[in-house]
Specification:
Layout lengths: L5 H34 L3 H57 L6 E2 L2 E8 L7 E9 L2 E9 L3 H21 L3 H16 L5 E9 L4 E7 L4 E5 L2 E5 L18 E4 L5 E5 L1 H8 L5 H7 L1 H7 L2 H14 L13 E8 L6
Antiparallel strand pairs: 1-2, 2-11, 3-4, 4-5, 5-6, 6-9, 7-8, 7-10, 10-11
Length: 332
C-alpha cells in the first residue's frame, strides 16, 4: 500500500510548475497590454503568441527545477540507505569470519590447514574442526547453495548443528543425517548444503567420512594422486529422511588429503589444468615438503590465476581448501 500523501508528492512538481506558468501568463498579459498600446501593434497577434511561449518556457523551467530538487532528495535518501546496508554487510562479514574456527597447525598424528576466500563480502562456504578426544578429530567442509546473505544465514545454523551433533556422536553418518533432518525441517530443502563430514583417528591412521553431494577430494601418496572422499549421498537438507553410509580410508605416514569446494574445481577446470592434474604434476614436491598451509595457498593462487567459471553469468564462487597431512608416529 502506498503511504498517505504519496500521490500528491508525485504530482506536486507538475502542479507547482503549472501554477507558475499561469501566474506568468497573467502578469505577462497585463504588461504586454501596456507595451502594445505604446507601440500601436496588433494586440491579438502579439499578445497570445508571446504569452504562450513565455508561459510554456517558465512552466518547463519550473518543473525541471522542482524535479531536479526532488531527484536530489531521493539520491541522498538512497545514499543514506546504501551506507546503512553497507555497514550491515560489513558487520555480517565480520560475524561470518568469526564463525570459522582457528584450525590448529597440528594434533596428534596430523597437521592441518584451511583457507576460505568468499566471492563477495559474504560467502556460503564453511568449515569447522572439533576434537572430542585426544585421538579423534571431527571436521566438516560445506558449501551452502546460493550466495550472499541467504546462504550466510545458514552457516551459523550449520556450525551449531555440527558442534551439537559432534558432542553426541562421532559417527559421520549419524552427524550428517541429523544435520540434514534439522536443515530440511527448518528450510524445506532450499537452501541446502553439500558437505564432507569426516572423523580422523590415530593408531592406526584412518579417516571415516560421509560425502553429502560434495565434490570429491584427493589423496596424495608417494608422489601419486588419486580421487578419494567421493560422493555417496544427497546434499544436507535437500530431501526429508536422507540417510548416509560411512566410508573408510586407511592412511599412511606422509599421506596428504585435499578437500575443496566447487569454487576451486570450477575455476581450475575452465583452464588447461584440472585440480587432479595440478596435484599430480606437483605430487612429489608436495609430498616431500608436506606442508598443508603451503598447499592451501598454492591451490588458491592457481584458482585465482585461472580464467574462472564459464557461462552466461560467469560469476565467481567462494573458494575453500581444507588440507591434512599424516605424520609419522601414532598414525602408523
Amino acid at each position: 500500500m502506498r503511504p498517505a500523501g504519496a500521490g500528491w508528492a508525485v504530482w506536486r512538481p507538475a502542479a507547482l510548475a503549472t501554477g507558475a506558468g499561469l501566474a506568468v501568463f497573467v502578469v505577462g498579459s497585463a504588461a504586454e497590454a501596456v507595451i502594445i498600446r505604446g507601440v500601436h501593434g496588433n494586440r491579438r497577434e502579439l499578445e497570445w503568441l508571446s504569452d504562450a511561449v513565455i508561459s510554456i518556457a517558465v512552466a518547463g523551467i519550473t518543473y525541471l527545477w522542482l524535479h531536479l530538487k526532488a531527484s536530489r532528495t531521493r539520491v541522498l535518501t538512497l545514499e543514506r540507505e546504501e551506507i546503512v546496508i553497507d555497514e550491515q554487510l560489513r558487520l555480517a562479514a565480520e560475524i561470518q569470519r568469526g564463525l570459522l574456527p582457528d584450525v590448529p597447525q597440528a594434533t596428534r598424528g596430523f597437521r592441518w590447514a584451511a583457507r576460505m576466500i568468499p566471492a563477495g563480502r559474504i560467502g556460503g562456504d564453511f568449515y569447522d574442526f572439533f576434537q572430542p578426544t585426544a585421538g579423534t578429530v571431527l571436521a566438516i567442509l560445506g558449501d551452502v547453495s546460493g550466495k550472499g546473505i541467504p546462504a550466510a544465514l545458514i552457516l551459523s545454523s550449520l556450525k551449531t548443528l555440527f558442534r551439537t551433533m559432534a558432542r553426541e556422536t562421532v559417527d559421520p553418518a549419524a552427524i550428517a543425517e541429523r544435520i540434514s533432518a534439522a536443515l530440511h525441517e527448518e528450510h524445506a530443502g532450499l537452501p541446502y548444503a553439500t558437505a564432507i563430514v569426516a572423523r580422523f583417528e590415530t593408531g592406526p591412521g584412518r579417516v571415516a567420512y560421509v560425502n553429502a553431494g560434495h565434490p570429491p577430494g584427493y589423496l596424495l601418496r608417494n608422489g601419486t594422486v588419486s580421487a578419494a572422499f567421493e560422493s555417496g549421498g544427497r546434499p544436507l537438507g535437500l530431501l526429508p529422511g536422507a540417510t548416509y553410509a560411512t566410508a573408510n580410508v586407511e592412511l599412511s605416514p606422509g599421506d596428504i588429503g585435499v578437500l575443496v569446494t566447487d569454487g576451486i574445481t570450477e575455476a581450475l577446470e575452465a583452464g588447461p589444468m584440472t585440480l587432479s592434474r595440478i596435484l599430480g604434476a606437483s605430487g612429489e614436491r608436495l609430498s616431500a615438503r608436506s606442508s598443508p598451509a603451503e598447499i592451501c595457498d598454492d591451490l588458491l593462487r592457481a584458482a585465482a590465476e585461472g580464467p574462472g567459471p564459464t557461462g552466461a553469468l560467469n560469476v565467481q564462487d567462494d573458494r575453500t581448501v581444507f588440507v591434512f597431512a599424516v605424520e609419522p608416529g601414532p598414525a602408523q
